[in-house]
Amino acid sequence: MFSLENAQSLVGVAFVLLVCWAVSENRRRFPWKLAIGAVTVQGLLVLALFGLPAVRSALLGVGVAVDGLASSTQAGVAFVFGFLAGTPDQPYPLTNGGALFVFAFRVLPVILVVCALAALLWHWRILVWITRAFGVVFERTMGLRGPPALATAATVFMGQVEGPIFIRSYLPSLSRSELFMLIAVGMSCVSGSTMVAYATILKDVLPNAAAHVLTASIISAPAGVLLARIIIPRDDAIEEAQTYDPAAAKKYDSSIDALIRGTTDGLQIVLNVGATLIVFVALVAMLNKILGVFPDVAGAPLSVERGLGVIFAPVAWAIGVPWKDAPTAGSLLGVKLVLTEFTAFIRMGAIPVDAMDPRSRVLMTYALCGFANVASVGINLAGFSVLAPERRNEIVGMVWKAMMAGFLATCLTASVVGLLPAGLFKV
């Protein structure tokens, strides 16, 4: 049944659309049809994924598959690092079982394995056909022409820079609106490798976490397209239909070559994620030490997290989070924007089950599931400067707006989920 808490999420939908319209390069060209269609598509996708018995069973299977993938990865980690991987056999008396969960050994290796599997599935053309299918969906339902539709679909599974690689030769001829859209969608979603990592982090505090993370990344793509089109409306004169073969952009010589090159690519991602987390967490710790010099406010010391909680608490409430959880949820949104969604998921995973309302935890899973953060600005600028060097200056001028669009896209996704009956997600 539709209730007041569902109606609360309407505020989030209106807020996101209003902000994007306010910063639009052409406010007179608001895409009303696309807005209605994108929000409807999001709602229908969630209803289908969680409401149809057959699909619900498949989503439950996703959780089982993620657990199997994580445990298999741990076998490889234990072989290389021994008891450091958190195996039951420890050489010293165990006084704190929770200390066995070491991020570097439990989460980062999963990214490595998934990247290798993704390359193998691409070589076997399984992922090619999945990407093509999603590309057709985006083309037919959201009016995208072929190449951007395919790149958008690839981004959902491969990542914010990896997806556009598939249409690299076409990037110079994209319209300004299409180029902005690709960057914004990349920040609205997460890659397949990180989906599994996030599900691993949340599995103990969120029932069927894998299904929620997978759904969040898929349905945030239409939101990213919509908000990008609002901020920089499409150029009808430039965007004429062209054909493109997605399989031609990424080829491997053999299955072994795919595994090796996928592992190499995954290693680069693992190093980037690990290094980024170290640096950004360290910088926040430094800021907190500086803020600690000042007197306590409201009985607690000043910190970056408290400040972000105050700033983003109204946003968290608007998407449907109960007010009692809004400061905590707002802090998570701020951490996601300033640090990375990895850090935000880790912090949410550390919140005890009874310390946050189940509705809040579900909505925040969707609101956090995107690459929109300060670090991604650098990643996109560096990546697209290589992929389309002749458009670097143009990209510099739009990448911060794209980060804002990506951040708001996940908030819009969470708001749409908040509009739906809570019983739908009791899988």
Describe the structure.
- The protein has 427 residues and is an all-alpha fold.
- The chain has one domain (4-425).
- 69% of the residues lie in helices and 0% in strands.
- The chain has 18 helices and no strands.
- The chain has helices at 4-22, 32-51, 53-81, 103-106, 108-123, 126-142, 146-158, 162-165, 176-188, 192-202, 209-231, 255-291, 304-318, 326-338, 341-349, 358-368, 374-387, 392-419.
- The longest helix is centred in the middle third of the chain and has 37 residues, at 255-291.
- The two termini are 17 Å apart.
Secondary-structure-derived class: mainly alpha
- Give the count of structural domains: 1
Number of strands: 0
Strand residues, percent: under 5%
Q: Could you list the spans in which at least 5 consecutive residues all have pLDDT below 50?
A: none
| Spatial extent as radius of gyration | 21 Å
Largest sheet: none
